[in-house]
Write a structure and sequence with these properties.
By secondary structure, the chain is of the alpha/beta class. 50% of the residues lie in helices and 13% in strands. It is globular. The structure holds one RNA strand.
RNA sequence: GCGCCUGUAGCUCAGUUGGAUAGAGCAACUGCCUUCUAAGCAGUAGGCCAGAGGUUCGAAUCCUCUCAGGCGCGCCA
């Protein structure tokens, strides 16, 4: 619809003497204005030195393909409003039914390769709600971009080296010592305290027995701690993978931080930076001069004690990513890491790439509420609600829908009571219900002997009720919404669109009966329902939501 | 103190990257189940777009300042 109009306008405006005009086409705010509108006359008034309304008239008058329009109006300061003919609308609707969702998806990526890294939670505990938001958003974005013609790789970066994993090992080991009755053994001050530590410790004990248990280890527990660390980290990673899998979020690649050390990617990265003169020594440490690239202070790579910082392996990680030559790299981070962006982009530039090579999308914080009251979350004390628990309480679809009805960079209040209420408070059911209702319409049609498979020859001209025309126009605007969502990397636009479609279907369903004695009318209305179902299912697939047959 | 995000209906949030008279859901109130699923439908009500300036044909949207909330500012990860 939009593409067709764009072509029409381009020809006309070029005829008016503007070589390569930028033609903006938008959905008008008011339906009564028409189906599509362009403010192009207003933006041309400066170039052509004529009043916008006059230009609008010239453009409208010069359009040759009048048959696809019912009317063309000039309104307001110089908008040109287009209303499409019923015949054109019906032919476009037909394509949805015969060609399926592919016809609705604009090919924007044109096969470009894009990598999205998301979740990447430390394997030191179960995922919490904030990770869930990142997971839902990242997965939906990946699906959206895939549908938009990109080749997408989903990556999870595993921080399996460094202090946090060691601390996990110490925490589990301390519990283990306690379990096997080794007497007083101090729990690390800043150790992980959740119940899951206890569980892992028990499993660890089952695995290794009392091997590390004798009291001598109290003085030199290194071996036991390492063993506990290896065991626990593997366990946590399994749990994370399982939780993500049950949430419907899958990854193509899992990049281990340890591997970067083992393969000397880390040392190579430092040498790379050094050879370009971005490294210096100070106070017994090795520094990266990130201030040369807009960071507000220089960053330590190798500490006085000879240990690497977290940032160092992250340099290696991003260097490796960039060398894979994706057309676009996306990192999805929790908003609490936003201060980290300048130094990573400094790395990108120091390696000789434009900082735009990496796009960091921030997912804002989630506050968990129950009945309006905040639920405290702290990994340190172990008092936090895991993603698994939330899903068990409210359901995966509900949780995802709540995540995906907001822009990723707006703060989110997640109220368990509101989410759980089995009423229309959960808009996800509203949309799923529309799909389920359509399924039962088709079931009903079948029992009455209609050939629900052969909708290619139905007479769509019979869809003349105002509601039917509105729904058709809405369906045909899906590619426009889709295109905007892909370009802006905003899956939530799809979510809102689906709610609008459902919001048009339900009243229609209530007012008109689809399956009647009128065979031809029934066929036409079944076709409309089929098109709605195609669009809803396509949206759900992108968002990672299930579309139950029955509810 | 500096930086980033946010501020739109009572509540939770959209607002198509600057377009036309400001949108949805929930909550509130009034009605609708012998008819393809009432997780539904019809209707009523609800606004100084935090505030003040500016940019232009045109601002919730862009710029500056103020106020309020959140998050960052380690030789932690």
């Amino acid at each position: 619809m939009k593409k067709r109009l764009h072509d029409v306008l381009k020809t006309v405006v070029e005829k008016l003497g503007v070589p390569s005009p930028e033609i903006v086409i938008e959905l008008p705010r008011e339906e009564s204005f028409g189906d599509l509108a362009t403010p192009v006359a207003m933006s041309l008034s400066k170039i052509l030195k004529k009043p916008p309304r006059k230009i609008a008239e010239d453009i409208a008058g010069a359009i040759e393909e009048k048959e696809i329009f019912e009317k063309i109006d000039i309104a307001g300061p110089g908008f040109i409003n287009f209303t499409f003919s019923k015949a054109y609308l019906h032919s476009e609707l037909r394509k949805i039914i015969t060609d399926g969702p592919a016809i609705l998806r604009e090919n924007i990526g044109k096969g470009k390769r894009i990598q999205i890294e998301f979740v990447s939670a430390n394997p030191t505990g179960p995922l919490h709600l904030g990770h869930g938001r990142g997971a839902a958003f990242g997965a939906a974005l990946a699906n959206l971009l895939t549908a938009g013609g990109y080749k997408v790789e989903r990556e999870y970066y595993i921080n399996d080296a460094g202090k946090q994993v060691l601390l996990l090992g110490k925490s589990v080991f301390a519990r283990y010592m306690h379990l096997c009755g080794a007497g007083e053994y101090a729990f690390p001050d800043d150790g992980y305290r959740g119940d899951y530590i206890e569980d892992v410790a028990k499993e660890f004990k089952k695995e290794v027995g009392k091997k590390y248990c004798h009291s001598a280890l109290k003085e030199s527990p290194q071996q036991g701690i390492i063993a506990a660390q290896e065991f626990a980290y593997g366990k946590m990673l399994d749990i994370i993978k399982k939780d993500l899998g049950e949430f419907g979020v899958l990854f193509d690649t899992w990049q281990s931080e340890r591997e970067l050390y083992k393969s000397s990617d880390v040392t190579k990265a430092i040498e790379d930076l050094r050879s370009h003169g971005h490294i210096f020594e100070k106070d017994g440490a090795t520094w990266f001069r990130s201030t040369d690239f807009g960071d507000d202070k220089d960053r330590v790579l190798v500490k006085q004690d000879g240990e690497y910082t977290y940032f160092t392996s992250d340099i290696a990680y991003h260097r490796k990513k960039i060398e894979k030559k994706f057309d676009e790299l996306i990192d999805i981070w929790g908003a609490d890491h936003h201060g980290y962006i300048p130094r990573v982009q400094a790395v990108i530039q120091a390696l000789g790439y434009p900082k735009e090579s990496l796009r960091v999308l921030l997912v804002q914080m989630v506050s968990l509420l129950r009945g309006g009251k905040p639920v405290q979350m702290s990994k340190r004390t172990g008092e936090f609600v895991s993603l698994r628990e939330v899903i068990a309480e409210v359901g995966a679809d509900t949780a995802k829908f709540i995540f995906l009805t907001r822009r990723s960079d707006s703060h989110l209040e997640f109220d368990l009571e509101v989410a759980k209420a089995q009423s229309a408070e959960n808009p996800v059911f509203y949309v799923q219900y529309a799909n389920a209702r359509i399924n039962s319409i088709f079931a009903n049609a079948k029992t009455k002997g209609f050939d629900t498979g052969g909708l290619e020859d139905t007479d769509l001209g019979l869809l003349s009720a105002q509601e039917e025309v509105r729904i058709i126009k809405k369906l045909l605007s899906y590619p426009i919404i889709f295109e905007g969502a892909v370009i802006a990397h905003e899956p939530h636009r799809i979510t809102f669109f689906l709610q609008e479609i459902a919001g048009m279907f339900h009243p229609y369903y209530h007012k008109y009966k689809v399956v009647t004695d009128d065979i031809r009318l029934t066929g036409a209305r079944l076709s409309l329902c089929e098109a709605i179902r195609v669009v809803i299912k396509d949206g759900f697939e992108i968002l990672g939501l299930s579309a139950p047959e029955r509810m």
